Amino acid sequence: MARSRVARQALGRRVRRSGVDDRRHGHRAVSRAGGRRARSGAAAPRRAPVRGRDRGPGPRRARAHLGAHLGAGLQRSRGRRAPRAGGDEAPLSEERVQELAALTWEEARDLDRPHTVAILPVGAIEAHGPHLPLGTDTIIAIAMARAGAQRLASEGLGAVLLPPISYAPAPFARGFAGTLSIAASALRDLLLETARELTRLEFRALGIANVHLDPAQRAALTEATERAAMEHLLPVACPDLTRRTVAARLSDEFRSGACHAGRFEGSILLAERPELVREDIRNALPPNPASLSTAIRAGLTSFEQAGGPRAYFGWPADATEEEGRATVETLGAILAEAVHETLALRGTT
Protein backbone atom coordinates (compact mmCIF):
# COMPACT_ATOMS: atom_id res chain seq x y z
CA MET A 1 0.00 0.00 0.00
CA ALA A 2 2.76 2.50 0.95
CA ARG A 3 4.63 1.65 -2.25
CA SER A 4 1.52 2.19 -4.44
CA ARG A 5 0.82 5.53 -2.64
CA VAL A 6 4.38 6.69 -3.38
CA ALA A 7 4.01 5.62 -7.02
CA ARG A 8 0.74 7.57 -7.34
CA GLN A 9 2.36 10.69 -5.83
CA ALA A 10 5.33 10.43 -8.23
CA LEU A 11 2.95 10.04 -11.16
CA GLY A 12 1.02 13.14 -10.05
CA ARG A 13 4.23 15.15 -9.87
CA ARG A 14 5.18 14.06 -13.40
CA VAL A 15 1.75 15.01 -14.78
CA ARG A 16 1.91 18.42 -13.08
CA ARG A 17 5.42 19.03 -14.40
CA SER A 18 4.30 18.00 -17.88
CA GLY A 19 1.47 20.54 -17.70
CA VAL A 20 3.90 23.29 -16.71
CA ASP A 21 6.27 22.40 -19.55
CA ASP A 22 3.38 22.37 -22.02
CA ARG A 23 2.24 25.78 -20.89
CA ARG A 24 5.78 27.12 -21.22
CA HIS A 25 5.77 26.12 -24.89
CA GLY A 26 2.34 27.59 -25.57
CA HIS A 27 0.31 24.33 -25.32
CA ARG A 28 -2.51 23.42 -22.98
CA ALA A 29 -2.11 20.46 -20.66
CA VAL A 30 -3.54 17.21 -21.98
CA SER A 31 -5.69 15.08 -19.70
CA ARG A 32 -5.28 11.35 -19.30
CA ALA A 33 -8.42 10.88 -21.41
CA GLY A 34 -6.50 12.41 -24.35
CA GLY A 35 -8.57 15.60 -24.70
CA ARG A 36 -7.52 19.20 -24.16
CA ARG A 37 -8.83 21.14 -21.19
CA ALA A 38 -11.43 23.68 -22.25
CA ARG A 39 -11.01 27.08 -20.68
CA SER A 40 -13.64 29.70 -21.28
CA GLY A 41 -12.00 33.01 -22.18
CA ALA A 42 -8.50 31.50 -22.29
CA ALA A 43 -6.02 33.28 -24.51
CA ALA A 44 -4.96 31.62 -27.76
CA PRO A 45 -1.58 29.90 -27.52
CA ARG A 46 1.39 31.99 -28.53
CA ARG A 47 3.41 30.91 -31.53
CA ALA A 48 7.05 30.20 -31.04
CA PRO A 49 9.27 32.93 -32.51
CA VAL A 50 10.73 32.23 -35.95
CA ARG A 51 14.38 31.20 -35.73
CA GLY A 52 14.59 32.47 -32.18
CA ARG A 53 13.47 36.04 -32.96
CA ASP A 54 10.22 37.62 -31.78
CA ARG A 55 8.67 39.24 -34.82
CA GLY A 56 6.50 41.56 -32.73
CA PRO A 57 2.73 41.87 -32.53
CA GLY A 58 2.01 43.10 -36.04
CA PRO A 59 2.34 41.34 -39.41
CA ARG A 60 5.56 42.02 -41.26
CA ARG A 61 5.95 41.60 -44.99
CA ALA A 62 9.09 39.73 -45.94
CA ARG A 63 11.04 40.71 -49.04
CA ALA A 64 11.01 37.68 -51.32
CA HIS A 65 14.36 36.55 -52.65
CA LEU A 66 15.33 37.65 -56.11
CA GLY A 67 15.13 34.18 -57.62
CA ALA A 68 11.41 34.08 -56.83
CA HIS A 69 10.96 37.45 -58.51
CA LEU A 70 12.83 36.38 -61.62
CA GLY A 71 10.74 33.23 -61.90
CA ALA A 72 7.60 35.26 -61.40
CA GLY A 73 8.70 37.50 -64.26
CA LEU A 74 8.41 34.58 -66.67
CA GLN A 75 5.06 33.57 -65.16
CA ARG A 76 3.65 37.01 -65.88
CA SER A 77 3.77 36.24 -69.62
CA ARG A 78 0.34 34.67 -69.24
CA GLY A 79 -2.71 36.81 -69.69
CA ARG A 80 -0.92 39.89 -71.09
CA ARG A 81 -1.87 41.43 -74.39
CA ALA A 82 0.38 42.49 -77.23
CA PRO A 83 -0.61 45.55 -79.30
CA ARG A 84 -1.17 45.02 -83.00
CA ALA A 85 0.33 47.30 -85.61
CA GLY A 86 -2.88 49.34 -85.80
CA GLY A 87 -2.92 50.00 -82.07
CA ASP A 88 -5.67 47.54 -81.12
CA GLU A 89 -4.91 44.98 -78.46
CA ALA A 90 -5.69 41.34 -79.08
CA PRO A 91 -5.79 38.64 -76.40
CA LEU A 92 -3.07 36.08 -76.84
CA SER A 93 -3.61 32.35 -76.90
CA GLU A 94 -1.98 31.12 -73.73
CA GLU A 95 -0.58 28.05 -75.45
CA ARG A 96 1.43 30.15 -77.93
CA VAL A 97 3.78 31.62 -75.28
CA GLN A 98 5.12 29.02 -72.89
CA GLU A 99 8.06 28.54 -70.54
CA LEU A 100 10.35 25.70 -71.51
CA ALA A 101 11.33 25.01 -67.89
CA ALA A 102 7.66 24.57 -66.92
CA LEU A 103 6.95 21.92 -69.58
CA THR A 104 7.35 18.18 -69.23
CA TRP A 105 9.53 16.43 -71.77
CA GLU A 106 6.43 15.07 -73.50
CA GLU A 107 4.93 18.56 -73.76
CA ALA A 108 8.22 19.83 -75.16
CA ARG A 109 8.21 16.97 -77.65
CA ASP A 110 4.71 17.96 -78.79
CA LEU A 111 5.58 21.62 -79.40
CA ASP A 112 5.43 22.73 -83.01
CA ARG A 113 9.14 23.45 -82.79
CA PRO A 114 9.79 24.17 -86.49
CA HIS A 115 7.36 27.09 -86.10
CA THR A 116 8.41 28.12 -82.57
CA VAL A 117 10.99 30.76 -81.67
CA ALA A 118 12.97 30.26 -78.45
CA ILE A 119 13.47 33.52 -76.56
CA LEU A 120 16.45 33.79 -74.20
CA PRO A 121 16.72 36.62 -71.64
CA VAL A 122 20.36 37.50 -70.94
CA GLY A 123 21.07 39.74 -67.98
CA ALA A 124 23.72 40.25 -65.32
CA ILE A 125 24.31 40.39 -61.59
CA GLU A 126 25.73 43.88 -61.29
CA ALA A 127 25.57 46.99 -59.09
CA HIS A 128 22.70 49.29 -60.05
CA GLY A 129 22.98 52.19 -57.67
CA PRO A 130 21.86 52.16 -54.04
CA HIS A 131 18.19 51.86 -55.05
CA LEU A 132 17.88 49.02 -57.61
CA PRO A 133 18.68 45.31 -57.15
CA LEU A 134 21.76 43.57 -58.51
CA GLY A 135 19.51 41.55 -60.85
CA THR A 136 18.07 44.62 -62.60
CA ASP A 137 19.40 43.69 -66.05
CA THR A 138 17.95 40.19 -65.77
CA ILE A 139 14.54 41.52 -64.72
CA ILE A 140 14.51 43.90 -67.70
CA ALA A 141 15.69 41.16 -70.07
CA ILE A 142 12.83 38.91 -68.91
CA ALA A 143 10.33 41.72 -69.49
CA MET A 144 11.75 42.34 -72.97
CA ALA A 145 11.69 38.61 -73.77
CA ARG A 146 8.11 38.25 -72.61
CA ALA A 147 6.92 41.26 -74.61
CA GLY A 148 8.79 40.07 -77.70
CA ALA A 149 7.37 36.55 -77.37
CA GLN A 150 3.85 37.92 -77.06
CA ARG A 151 4.27 40.06 -80.16
CA LEU A 152 5.61 37.10 -82.16
CA ALA A 153 2.66 35.01 -80.97
CA SER A 154 0.21 37.74 -82.04
CA GLU A 155 1.83 37.56 -85.47
CA GLY A 156 1.29 33.81 -85.79
CA LEU A 157 4.59 32.35 -84.58
CA GLY A 158 4.89 30.12 -81.55
CA ALA A 159 7.25 31.32 -78.82
CA VAL A 160 8.82 29.62 -75.84
CA LEU A 161 10.64 31.47 -73.07
CA LEU A 162 13.95 29.97 -71.96
CA PRO A 163 15.25 30.35 -68.40
CA PRO A 164 17.36 33.53 -68.12
CA ILE A 165 21.14 33.69 -68.06
CA SER A 166 22.14 36.01 -65.22
CA TYR A 167 25.91 35.57 -65.25
CA ALA A 168 27.73 37.99 -67.52
CA PRO A 169 30.93 39.94 -68.00
CA ALA A 170 30.54 43.13 -65.96
CA PRO A 171 34.03 44.58 -65.53
CA PHE A 172 32.78 48.17 -65.18
CA ALA A 173 31.03 47.24 -61.92
CA ARG A 174 33.62 44.91 -60.42
CA GLY A 175 34.52 47.45 -57.76
CA PHE A 176 31.06 47.16 -56.17
CA ALA A 177 29.98 44.43 -53.75
CA GLY A 178 27.68 41.78 -55.19
CA THR A 179 28.73 42.17 -58.82
CA LEU A 180 29.52 38.80 -60.42
CA SER A 181 31.65 39.30 -63.53
CA ILE A 182 32.57 36.26 -65.63
CA ALA A 183 34.82 36.03 -68.68
CA ALA A 184 33.23 37.11 -71.96
CA SER A 185 34.36 33.81 -73.49
CA ALA A 186 32.32 31.89 -70.89
CA LEU A 187 29.12 33.66 -71.93
CA ARG A 188 29.97 33.30 -75.63
CA ASP A 189 30.46 29.55 -75.26
CA LEU A 190 27.25 29.13 -73.23
CA LEU A 191 25.24 30.99 -75.88
CA LEU A 192 26.80 28.96 -78.65
CA GLU A 193 26.12 25.66 -76.89
CA THR A 194 22.52 26.76 -76.31
CA ALA A 195 22.14 27.53 -80.02
CA ARG A 196 23.54 24.11 -80.90
CA GLU A 197 21.02 22.37 -78.66
CA LEU A 198 18.10 24.41 -79.98
CA THR A 199 19.23 23.49 -83.51
CA ARG A 200 19.26 19.82 -82.57
CA LEU A 201 15.72 20.20 -81.20
CA GLU A 202 14.63 21.85 -84.48
CA PHE A 203 13.42 25.19 -83.14
CA ARG A 204 12.74 27.85 -85.75
CA ALA A 205 15.06 30.53 -84.34
CA LEU A 206 16.65 31.93 -81.20
CA GLY A 207 15.89 35.47 -80.08
CA ILE A 208 18.15 37.00 -77.41
CA ALA A 209 16.82 39.75 -75.14
CA ASN A 210 19.75 41.73 -73.74
CA VAL A 211 19.96 45.16 -72.08
CA HIS A 212 23.33 44.73 -70.34
CA LEU A 213 25.47 46.91 -72.59
CA ASP A 214 28.93 46.46 -71.11
CA PRO A 215 31.35 46.32 -74.10
CA ALA A 216 32.50 42.85 -73.05
CA GLN A 217 28.90 41.61 -73.06
CA ARG A 218 28.18 43.05 -76.48
CA ALA A 219 31.36 41.46 -77.85
CA ALA A 220 30.37 38.04 -76.48
CA LEU A 221 26.89 38.29 -78.02
CA THR A 222 28.24 39.39 -81.38
CA GLU A 223 30.82 36.62 -81.52
CA ALA A 224 28.30 33.94 -80.51
CA THR A 225 25.83 35.12 -83.17
CA GLU A 226 28.49 35.18 -85.90
CA ARG A 227 29.82 31.73 -85.01
CA ALA A 228 26.28 30.30 -84.97
CA ALA A 229 25.86 31.54 -88.53
CA MET A 230 29.23 30.09 -89.57
CA GLU A 231 28.19 26.70 -88.15
CA HIS A 232 24.84 26.89 -89.99
CA LEU A 233 22.91 26.68 -86.74
CA LEU A 234 19.38 28.02 -86.35
CA PRO A 235 19.00 31.77 -86.99
CA VAL A 236 20.03 33.84 -83.95
CA ALA A 237 18.60 37.34 -83.51
CA CYS A 238 20.10 39.71 -80.96
CA PRO A 239 19.17 43.36 -81.46
CA ASP A 240 21.88 45.86 -80.52
CA LEU A 241 20.16 48.66 -78.62
CA THR A 242 23.12 50.97 -79.17
CA ARG A 243 22.54 51.14 -82.94
CA ARG A 244 21.32 54.60 -83.84
CA THR A 245 18.16 53.45 -85.58
CA VAL A 246 17.25 51.32 -82.57
CA ALA A 247 18.27 53.82 -79.88
CA ALA A 248 16.15 56.46 -81.62
CA ARG A 249 13.07 54.54 -80.45
CA LEU A 250 14.13 54.70 -76.80
CA SER A 251 14.28 57.53 -74.28
CA ASP A 252 16.35 60.72 -74.29
CA GLU A 253 18.24 59.47 -71.23
CA PHE A 254 19.11 56.24 -73.01
CA ARG A 255 20.47 58.10 -76.04
CA SER A 256 22.48 60.45 -73.81
CA GLY A 257 24.59 57.55 -72.52
CA ALA A 258 23.93 58.64 -68.92
CA CYS A 259 21.83 55.56 -68.51
CA HIS A 260 22.55 53.04 -65.79
CA ALA A 261 20.11 52.64 -62.89
CA GLY A 262 18.62 55.97 -63.93
CA ARG A 263 15.21 56.93 -65.29
CA PHE A 264 15.24 54.37 -68.14
CA GLU A 265 15.97 51.29 -66.04
CA GLY A 266 14.24 52.58 -62.91
CA SER A 267 10.98 53.07 -64.84
CA ILE A 268 11.03 49.46 -66.05
CA LEU A 269 11.68 48.20 -62.52
CA LEU A 270 8.75 50.28 -61.23
CA ALA A 271 6.56 48.63 -63.88
CA GLU A 272 7.86 45.10 -63.45
CA ARG A 273 9.14 44.72 -59.87
CA PRO A 274 8.18 47.79 -57.83
CA GLU A 275 8.69 45.93 -54.56
CA LEU A 276 12.41 45.71 -55.31
CA VAL A 277 12.89 49.45 -55.78
CA ARG A 278 14.13 51.31 -52.68
CA GLU A 279 11.81 54.25 -53.22
CA ASP A 280 12.99 56.40 -50.34
CA ILE A 281 16.55 56.26 -51.68
CA ARG A 282 15.57 56.64 -55.35
CA ASN A 283 13.50 59.77 -54.74
CA ALA A 284 16.40 61.44 -52.93
CA LEU A 285 19.12 60.69 -55.50
CA PRO A 286 20.47 63.71 -57.41
CA PRO A 287 20.91 63.45 -61.19
CA ASN A 288 24.22 62.17 -62.53
CA PRO A 289 24.53 63.34 -66.15
CA ALA A 290 27.95 61.69 -66.72
CA SER A 291 27.78 59.69 -69.97
CA LEU A 292 28.91 56.09 -69.86
CA SER A 293 29.12 55.89 -73.65
CA THR A 294 31.48 58.88 -73.68
CA ALA A 295 33.58 57.26 -70.96
CA ILE A 296 33.81 54.02 -72.93
CA ARG A 297 34.96 55.87 -76.06
CA ALA A 298 37.59 57.59 -73.93
CA GLY A 299 39.00 54.24 -72.86
CA LEU A 300 37.77 54.32 -69.24
CA THR A 301 37.07 50.92 -67.70
CA SER A 302 35.02 51.36 -64.53
CA PHE A 303 31.98 53.16 -63.14
CA GLU A 304 34.23 55.01 -60.73
CA GLN A 305 36.42 56.35 -63.55
CA ALA A 306 33.31 57.26 -65.55
CA GLY A 307 31.95 59.43 -62.71
CA GLY A 308 29.58 57.00 -61.01
CA PRO A 309 30.88 56.46 -57.46
CA ARG A 310 27.53 54.98 -56.38
CA ALA A 311 27.04 52.91 -59.58
CA TYR A 312 24.26 54.96 -61.13
CA PHE A 313 24.03 57.40 -64.05
CA GLY A 314 21.10 59.48 -65.23
CA TRP A 315 17.97 60.77 -63.50
CA PRO A 316 16.64 58.00 -61.21
CA ALA A 317 14.19 60.25 -59.32
CA ASP A 318 12.30 60.93 -62.59
CA ALA A 319 11.41 57.26 -63.22
CA THR A 320 7.72 56.37 -63.61
CA GLU A 321 5.79 53.15 -63.94
CA GLU A 322 3.98 54.47 -67.03
CA GLU A 323 7.24 55.10 -68.87
CA GLY A 324 8.43 51.66 -67.84
CA ARG A 325 5.42 49.90 -69.33
CA ALA A 326 5.75 51.80 -72.59
CA THR A 327 9.48 51.04 -72.75
CA VAL A 328 8.90 47.31 -72.25
CA GLU A 329 6.46 47.26 -75.17
CA THR A 330 9.02 49.07 -77.34
CA LEU A 331 11.77 46.64 -76.35
CA GLY A 332 9.47 43.72 -77.18
CA ALA A 333 8.74 45.19 -80.61
CA ILE A 334 12.47 45.68 -81.26
CA LEU A 335 13.14 42.04 -80.38
CA ALA A 336 10.28 40.68 -82.51
CA GLU A 337 11.37 42.77 -85.49
CA ALA A 338 14.95 41.52 -85.11
CA VAL A 339 13.69 37.93 -85.22
CA HIS A 340 11.73 38.59 -88.43
CA GLU A 341 14.71 40.36 -90.02
CA THR A 342 17.04 37.48 -89.15
CA LEU A 343 14.60 34.91 -90.54
CA ALA A 344 14.29 36.94 -93.74
CA LEU A 345 18.07 37.17 -94.13
CA ARG A 346 18.31 33.39 -93.75
CA GLY A 347 15.44 32.87 -96.18
CA THR A 348 13.33 31.00 -93.60
CA THR A 349 10.32 33.33 -93.20
From TrEMBL:
Protein's UniProt keywords contain Nucleotide-binding: no
Pfam families (alphabetical): Creatininase (PF02633)
Entry keyword Methyltransferase: no
GO biological process: riboflavin biosynthetic process
Feature: compositional bias, Basic residues: 25-39
Cofactors demanded by this protein: Zn(2+)
GO molecular function: hydrolase activity, acting on carbon-nitrogen (but not peptide) bonds, in linear amides; metal ion binding
Keyword terms: Hydrolase, Metal-binding, Zinc
Start and end residues of each stretch annotated as Disordered: 1-93
Sequence similarity: Belongs to the creatininase superfamily.
Protein name per the record: Creatininase family protein
Protein source organism: Eiseniibacteriota bacterium
